[in-house]
Amino acid sequence: DVKVTQSSRYLVKRTGEKVFLECVQDMDHENMFWYRQDPGLGLRLIYFSYDVKMKEKGDIPEGYSVSREKKERFSLILESASTNQTSMYLCASTKGPPSGANVLTFGAGSRLTVL
Amino acid sequence: AQSVSQHNHHVILSEAASLELGCNYSYGGTVNLFWYVQYPGQHLQLLLKYFSGDPLVKGIKGFEAEFIKSKFSFNLRKPSVQWSDTAEYFCAVNAPGSGGYQKVTFGTGTKLQVIP
Hints:
The complex is a heterodimer. Chain A is an all-beta fold. Chain A is built from no helices and 12 strands. In chain A, a hairpin with a 2-residue loop joins strand 8 and strand 9. Helix content of chain B is 0%, strand content 53%. Chain B contains no helices and 12 strands. Chain B has strands spanning 4-5, 10-14, 19-21, 24-25, 32-38, 44-50, 56-58, 64-68, 73-78, 87-96, 102-106, 110-115. In chain B, strands 2, 5, 6, 10, 11 and 12 form a 6-stranded mixed β-sheet that branches. The radius of gyration of chain B is 14 Å and the shape is globular. The interface between A and B is medium-sized, with 25 and 26 residues.
């Protein structure tokens, strides 16, 4: 089975801190995604990457950045955390061309609370 | 840009009742459609998908969905729900975004509670 592993299940940070959320997949998937999940809002795409060192903005990239130095790892960075970034963050990956219809495989999620 | 609407935010059913969850999307071109499910404490996982062909697709655990192109709909159904179907269900649409990349857009989700 494909595994998408998010290193932290629960984090509590203070306003203004820099936060790193790490995601690793072990099945050589080309494409990786970061979503945030909020009650009543569903999943919203923050950033995605279709190749190493490549990134594209999703629907809500403000306040976030990403890094993809290796194929298996995709990091989400909150440069200066704010309370409105308190959320569940989901990493996902897919195999196949970026122009194709691919099924997302999700990690367990990282629940971030910003105080 | 595409959008996805799920009409029911919270549904409560008794076991053995029939289920239909609505999903409508707004994109006029070719789309791929999905239902994902999140059981309590578990990862989001694929329930079923439609790429092409027969518009009635079957997924895991007895779920099915029908793609009606003229109505831009992809409703999820199950004839008889079980307590273990308690979960949150997300409809998703995969359509071309900017730059030629496929982009997956999710609905807001429907929480299903099945009462024994």
